[in-house]
Amino acid sequence: MFNKIIKLFIAGLLIAVAVWQFIEGEIGNGIALILLSGIFIFLYFKNEMILLAFLRLRKQDFPGAKKWLDKIKDPEKALVPKQQGYYWYLHGLMVSQTNMTQAEKFFKRAIKLGLSMDHDLAMAKLNLAGIAMTKRRKREATTLLSEAKKLDKHGMLNDQIRMMKEQMKKI
User: Fold this and answer.
1) Distance between CA 6 and CA 44 in Å, rounded?
2) CB neighbourhood size of 125 (10 A)
3) Angle, CA 69 vertex, CA 39 and CA 63 arms, to 5°
4) Are 121 and 151 in contact (CB under 8 A)?
5) How far is 68 from 128, CA to CA, in rounded Å?
6) What distance in Å separates the CA atoms of residue 161 and residue 120, rounded to the nearest whole number?
7) Which of 22, 44, 97, 115 has the least CB density, counted as fewest CB within 10 Å?
8) In angstroms, how far is CA 43 from the centroid of its own chain?
9) pLDDT band for position 169 (50/70/90)?
10) pTM, rounded to two decimals
């Protein structure tokens, strides 16, 4: 919605007005403005379009998620690097159902830019392992699976990793 620099400018302006309100003795207004500026600071680090796309993906609404991601016109300028990683990660998740080559490119780009959460990184590597396995690159798939297993500290992907290892034995 807003450029990342505009978000920081608005947050700084709100904090300045909050300080002025504190000086004037209007403590309630100052606290409300500090909380409001917190929203803009939060949205600097977590892009609202990406958050809305994640919500759509949780409901398996791929066209809705694509619509929200398409609202980001120039991700290199509008997003910080971690947000760019999630931008390409979401594109990879959506495209992985139809176009494996394109999904592989998106996942590699997301991993290169970085993902904040280990389980997201594990999921990206698991998807890359599946793509490598379908393209008969067993060594690469094995490496990616072991990296995904290390990153999955809570064991959320254990079943998928186990299934993929059994499928690799058949190759």
Assistant:
1) 9
2) 24
3) 125
4) yes
5) 24
6) 14
7) 97
8) 13
9) confident
10) 0.82
What type of residue sits at position 165?
K
Q: What is the pLDDT of residues 31-54, one digit of tens each?
A: 999 999 999 999 888 888 999 999
Answer for the pair 68, 52: CB distance below 8 angstroms, yes or no. yes
- Both structure tokens of 102: 């394109």
SS (H, E, C) the chain: CCCHHHHHHHHHHHHHHHHHHHHHCCHHHHHHHHHHHHHHHHHHHCCHHHHHHHHHHHCCCHHHHHHHHHCCCCHHHHCCHHHHHHHHHHHHHHHCCCCHHHHHHHHHHHHHHCCCCHHHHHHHHHHHHHHHHHCCCHHHHHHHHHHHHHHCCCCCCHHHHHHHHHHHHHC
How do residues 94-126 score in pLDDT, each as one tens digit? 998 888 999 999 999 999 998 888 888 999 999
Confidence class for position 1, pLDDT limits 50, 70, 90: low
**How far out from the chain centre does Cα 71 lie?**
15
Q: Which domains does the chain have, with CATH numbers?
A: 1-45 (no CATH), 47-170 (1.25.40.10)
- Distance CA(4)–CA(76), nearest Å, equals 11
Is residue 10 a contact partner of residue 40, using CB atoms and an 8 Å limit?
A: yes
Q: Quote the crossing angle between the two packed helices 81-95 and 62-70, to the nearest 10°.
A: 150
**Token match 């599946």: residue?**
130
